[in-house]
Specification:
5 domains, 42% helix, alpha+beta
Length: 689
């Protein structure tokens, strides 16, 4: 057994990847029991997980994955695939393995009892044909020359290991199995005596193995001897016969010449996440120092300094982009958990659901991806419970019995948009209004004029739910407010749009119009840096994300109006709420802030905030900057409308403005401004990007 402490992080990372792939393969086999490609893939994954676990000494995982191998072996050999109940058994095995891996990660050990699951798996096993049984009884699996040639062409070597068991070895089958697994850590086992799939019946004293590997003879010798109860071990390079790659394996000769293939570079390198974080931190400091030097160079009169600074800026910017890309991972790592969740939850709710996933290869910063799982789980559970109907309800509404749930990701400028869309019942403003009145969130007068946009916004209110009864799935009023808080903590925003057919003159819904709900999460590509507009509010500097800035205007001479005590700025045919920066950015009070002093500021920055435009009055404009951001302590971020902090070239600190929090301030200070909005539900193309 190898040293667990040294290899545990690698084991956990690879085990989680294998389990994700295993879960998807089980779902594919459920949809198509005779899917040979999926069955082959599952067999390889289970086999790899078994080998990894054996090398680490996790015997319970080994026992369970070995039994799973038997089931998938039969699936690969027989037409028709597995019976329907096999999917439930394999899903239970997957759950047990995931739990075991996570307990290992937290230091709790395997905590897995495989006996019951192994027995359930064995009950699934069909009787083997005589040909299959004969194949299992074979005492040797000589090298697969086709596979061996492919591995050698990729820069590997074929090493032949011969191990003699000691005279006092009481369990030769166990030692043979442990030897095979120890060698698999160093490469691929392409043949063995006994046959690896029949090792449990081995009773001999000599074990042979052929391993395609990049390791040397000494490494394999050490791995083999670590198994114990071996009298002798010999490792040597095994030449391949010339000519037909399908030639019989007994044509192998230890004396035949074989040129060593040149070692090729690995396609990927696994790097610890902490090292990437350290690299990003150092890169951030470099950007700060570059900005400082640029400011000094602009004041210095040194020949050739300006062109040199331009070259330095280009190189450091390219380096910054490269470091940022290294931290990018596809959202597939999050999407992979949902096929299983949707399948299980749809079964519990008695609904038929087709899950579609698009854009899984879209990349985001690793920190953003790590935090994306919980918000998406809330949205998917809400879509399944509240959005999609039962087959009977869908039939009555003129829809197909099977609902569609779509997870999609796409790039949009400097952001990534992740959406959760269903073709269910949509958002009913009347139902939302009734629930809001019952919970004391609206009075009857406000509820009577509630439009679609305001109804969607109410779903984010703490404690709000339209569920008639509380279940273990939803109905407690906890979820959507937490989703918005989580997404905003990442510098993003979440919006919900409902689609419901308009009502005809007879009072019926136009069933041909679109139905459903779409929740969109707009997230930054990276949390490391932003392009921002620096502004001054009094004596304090603030940074407004440039992608939220629409324009800037001087307030001198502009007529500022006041409606119901709220200052409004007429601009481009619109009346924009004018927020006093000193009031809005210093804190976000629970009560409506006083913006009477906004008109006395020198400038206004028009920004997009929570899906609407507002004007923020500031004292001065300092220009555009590329800033490296830092998260704020929770005590600060809760009091101020700030999404983070940034170090300025001169060493000061600027707070990064949370534009969506400003939108919330605007709603509290000017509730009357929600009147007169369009009450029609937008078409698909109208969903905010």
């Amino acid at each position: 057994m190898i040293e667990q402490r040294d290899y545990l992080p690698t084991f956990l990372a690879e085990a989680r990847e294998h389990l994700q792939e295993l879960g998807l393969a089980i779902l594919r086999i459920e949809a198509a029991p005779d899917d040979q490609i999926a069955a082959d893939g599952v067999f390889r994954v289970a086999h790899s997980l078994k080998g990894m676990s054996a090398a680490m000494g996790f015997e319970r995982i080994v026992a369970l994955t070995h039994a799973m191998e038997d089931v998938f072996e039969l699936l690969r050999q027989r037409a028709g695939g597995l019976p329907p109940d096999a999917i439930d058994v394999l899903s239970a095995c997957l759950d047990a393995l995931e739990t075991a891996v996570e307990r290992i990660a937290t230091g709790g050990g395997e905590t897995l009892d495989p006996a019951l699951l192994v027995e359930r798996l064995r009950l699934l096993a069909r009787e083997r044909t005589p040909e299959q049984e004969l194949a299992r009884e074979g005492d040797a699996a000589l090298p697969d020359l086709v596979n061996a040639r492919e591995r050698l062409a990729a820069g590997e070597r074929l090493l032949h290991v011969v191990a003699d068991l000691s005279d006092d070895c009481q369990m030769p089958a166990v030692r043979a199995f442990m030897l095979f697994e120890a060698l698999r850590v160093n490469g691929e086992l392409v043949g063995g005596v006994p046959a690896p799939e029949a090792v449990e019946r081995f009773a001999g004293r000599r074990v042979e193995a052929w391993v395609a590997t990049r390791s040397d003879e000494e490494t394999l010798d050490e791995s083999a001897r670590a198994v114990g109860e071996l009298a002798d071990v010999a490792v040597r390079e095994q030449p391949l016969p010339e000519g037909d790659p399908a030639a019989p394996a007994d044509a192998l000769s230890a004396d035949a010449p074989s040129p060593r293939a040149a070692a090729g570079p690995a396609a990927t390198v696994r790097v610890d996440a902490e090292r990437l974080d350290e690299l990003l931190h150092l890169m951030s400091e470099l950007v700060q120092h570059r900005t400082t030097v640029e400011a000094l160079a602009a004041e210095a009169d040194v020949p050739g300094l300006a062109p040199a600074m331009q070259r330095l800026a280009r190189t450091s910017q390219a380096l910054q982009e490269t470091v940022t890309r290294v931290r990018m991972v596809p959202v597939e790592s999050v999407f992979l958990r949902f096929p299983r969740l949707v399948r299980d939850l749809a079964t519990r709710l008695g609904k038929q659901v087709e899950l579609r996933m698009e854009g899984a290869d879209t990349e985001l910063d690793r920190t953003v991806v790590d935090a994306l799982g919980d918000p998406l789980i809330h949205l998917v559970r809400n879509a399944l419970d509240h959005g999609l109907e039962t087959p009977a309800e869908r039939t009555a509404a003129g829809k197909p019995e099977t609902g569609v749930l779509e997870l999609a990701a796409r790039h949009a400028g400097g952001h990534v948009v992740v959406s959760v869309r269903d073709d269910g019942r949509g958002i009913d403003p009347a139902a939302v209004a009734r629930a809001a009145v019952e919970r004391g969130l609206l009075d009857a007068t406000a509820a009577a004029v509630l439009d679609a946009t305001a109804a969607a916004e109410l779903l984010f209110a703490p404690g709000f739910s339209t569920a008639a009864a509380t279940t273990d799935v939803s109905g407690r009023g906890v979820g959507m407010d937490a989703v918005r808080a989580s997404v905003r903590a990442l510098g993003g925003e979440v919006t919900i749009t409902g689609f419901r057919p308009p009502v005809t003159a007879s009072g019926d819904l136009q069933a041909t119009s679109p139905w459903g709900t779409c929740a969109q999460l707009r997230l930054p590509l990276t949390l490391a840096s932003i392009s921002a507009l620096l502004v001054g509010v009094g004596e304090l500097p603030y940074a407004i994300p440039l992608d939220r800035v629409v324009r800037t205007v001087r307030l001198d001479g502009l007529p500022v109006r006041t409606v119901r005590g709220v200052p409004l700025l007429p601009l481009g045919g619109e009346l924009l709420p004018l927020l006093d920066g000193a009031q809005s950015l210093s804190a976000t009070p629970a009560s409506a802030p006083d913006h009477a002093g906004a008109a006395e500021q020198g400038y206004a920055v028009i920004i997009n905030a929570s899906g609407r435009r507002v004007a923020l009055a500031v004292s001065s404009l300092a220009g555009q900057r590329e800033l490296v951001t830092r998260r704020l302590p929770r005590t600060v971020s809760q009091r101020a409308a700030a999404a983070g902090g940034a170090v300025l070239p001169e060493g000061g600190i600027a707070l990064v403005v949370d534009c969506d929090a400003l939108g919330d301030v605007d709603r509290r200070s000017s509730p009357a401004m929600t009147e007169g909005r369009n009450t029609d539900f937008p078409a698909t193309e109208g969903v905010p990007a």
